[in-house]
Design a protein that fits this description.
This protein has 162 residues and is mostly beta strands. Helices cover 0% and strands 43% of the residues. It is built from no helices and 12 strands. The strands form 3 sheets. The protein has a 6-stranded mixed sheet with strand order 2-1-10-7-12-5, with no helix packed on it. It has a 4-stranded antiparallel sheet with strand order 6-11-8-9, with no helix packed on it. It has a two-stranded antiparallel sheet with strand order 3-4. β1 and β2 form a beta hairpin. The chain is globular, with a radius of gyration of 18 Å. It comes from Paraburkholderia polaris. This is Cupin domain-containing protein. InterPro entries: RmlC_Cupin_sf.
């Protein structure tokens, strides 16, 4: 079965410029005490603009000084014990499911279509030997993730990417 969507001829309408979209994401961040948290945030600074000869589409350009793209395959029953993200990074599940637990005890489960920003650098280990976050796969298939590691310093404020 194909995932291709074929619009009906003549069914296309230009987007309403007053109906800017919002895309939700989970932001894993660390506070001034070095404790990690997860906050639900939104990308909400979209501009309606065409690219080349393409019809106008909603774009939300994120400033950065560069990035490294890394694809990961986490095996079935994989668990990454307490660790920090190697850099501020966007994480996009391609297939499978995974979970992330922050130091404050919040556990989020994600799959394809979900989006996470891992920015928990600078955490301070606690008495329970937690530092950063734990993560792992869910179910009977590997979790395939694409990460976009930003070449930028972390910011200790949830939702600063908008």
């Amino acid at each position: 079965m194909s995932n291709t969507v074929r619009p009906e001829v003549g069914a296309s309408r230009p987007p309403d410029p007053d109906q800017s979209p919002r895309i939700g994401y989970w932001h894993l961040w660390s506070d001034e005490r070095g404790v990690s948290h997860q906050t639900r945030c939104e990308l909400d600074r979209f501009k309606l603009k065409g690219i080349g000869n393409a019809a106008p589409q909603w774009n939300n350009s994120q400033p950065t000084t560069g990035a490294t793209v890394v694809f990961t395959v986490q095996p079935v029953r994989w668990v990454g014990e307490w660790h920090e993200n190697p850099a501020p990074q966007w994480i996009l599940p391609i297939s499978g499911r995974w979970w992330v637990e922050s130091m404050d005890g919040t556990r989020i489960e994600m799959g394809p279509g979900d989006l996470s920003l891992g920015e928990d650098q600078g955490c301070v280990g606690d008495r329970a030997h937690r530092k950063g976050h734990r993560s792992g796969t869910i179910g009977n298939e590997p979790a395939i993730l694409m990460t976009i590691q930003l070449h930028a310093e972390p910011i200790r404020q949830p939702g600063h990417f908008r």
